[in-house]
Design brief:
Layout lengths: L1 H11 L2 E5 L9 E5 L4 H11 L7 E4 L4 E9 L5 E12 L3 E7 L15 H24 L4 E9 L5 E7 L6 H9 L1
Length: 179
């Protein structure tokens, strides 16, 4: 069944990502293009799709990976914390984050992007995640909540994942806030 879903998605999209949902940091992710050899896909499925394991399949949107971090206080206040750029190598291995202060967080986007595009991506990242944060607050969630997104060259952002926890990007941000 996995092979059929992959084939069907590749009819619609130039590229997809297949992810084993319990792993992090880029482990258990395969970028699949229409030209990806079947042997590579089969190796991945053999390693991660056995014993009824479920997989996540996402459209492979070209762009830059970013994260936004929010904080929901016990009294219900919601705070926008920061935006970071995720540094990804080999298509899936997350090796770290670049961070700027909340006032100039659009700087984490590529230098060759126009300022208006960076500002649009910055605005979209907060706007796209706001309804999900409000939903979490309404349902009693308290603490850090982050979202991984992909920003394209037009400034549009696409939510990839929600992390209802303090993420690795939070550590440098905590130091930054204390300075």
């Amino acid at each position: 069944e996995c092979r059929r879903v992959i084939a069907d998605m590749l009819k619609q999209f130039m590229c997809i990502f297949i992810k084993e949902p319990t792993l992090g940091g880029g482990a258990g992710i395969l970028r699949v293009a229409r030209t990806t050899p079947a042997e590579e896909i089969n190796r991945f499925l053999h390693a991660y799709a056995t014993g009824g394991c479920r997989l996540i399949v996402d459209e492979g949107i070209e762009g830059v990976d970013i994260s936004v971090q929010w904080f929901i206080h016990p009294d219900g206040r919601v705070e926008r914390r920061f935006i970071t750029r995720q540094y990804i190598v080999g298509g899936s291995l997350h090796i770290g984050n670049g961070i700027e202060s909340s006032l100039c967080s659009h700087r984490v986007l590529p230098e060759d992007w126009q300022e208006k595009t960076k500002e649009l991506a910055h605005t979209h990242a907060w706007q796209n995640t706001d309804p999900l944060v409000m939903w979490a607050r309404k349902h009693g969630y308290v603490g850090s909540i982050g979202f991984d997104l992909r920003a394209d060259k037009k400034g549009m952002t696409y939510i990839l994942e929600c992390n209802g926890r303090f993420t690795a990007a939070g550590y440098p941000a905590s130091v930054q806030e204390q300075l």
